[in-house]
Amino acid sequence: MARLSGLQRDVLALYRQCLRATRQKPLETRPHFRAFARQEFEKNLAIEKRDFAAIEYMLRRGHRQLEIYEDPGIRDVHR
């Protein structure tokens, strides 16, 4: 497998954090959280790999969103 750049590793790490965060949610809503995370990442696949500013912006935005959704008061998410 090819070596990953720092940004690629950051994106994968954020995705893993999102999937780990779903483990803290109620069993019946976990699939909603997984589908939401996947949808958000797939939505941004069109961003050019060399558009570092856009990728860094999306990473910051993703971390803020993850922080919000990790709150125990958030029990479900709808797409």
Automatic annotation (TrEMBL):
GO cellular component: mitochondrial matrix
UniProt keyword annotations, A-Z: Chaperone, Mitochondrion
Keyword Transcription regulation found: no
GO biological process: mitochondrial respiratory chain complex II assembly
Main subcellular location of this protein, as a coarse class: mitochondrion
InterPro entries attached to this UniProt entry: Complex1_LYR_dom (IPR008011), Complex1_LYR_SDHAF1_LYRM8 (IPR045295)
Signal peptide: none
Compartment list: Mitochondrion matrix
Occurrences of domain Complex 1 LYR protein (ranges): 9-67
Family classification: Belongs to the complex I LYR family. SDHAF1 subfamily.
Matching PANTHER family: LYR MOTIF-CONTAINING PROTEIN 2, SUCCINATE DEHYDROGENASE ASSEMBLY FACTOR 1, MITOCHONDRIAL
Name of the protein in question: Complex 1 LYR protein domain-containing protein
Lineage: Eukaryota, Fungi, Dikarya, Ascomycota, Pezizomycotina
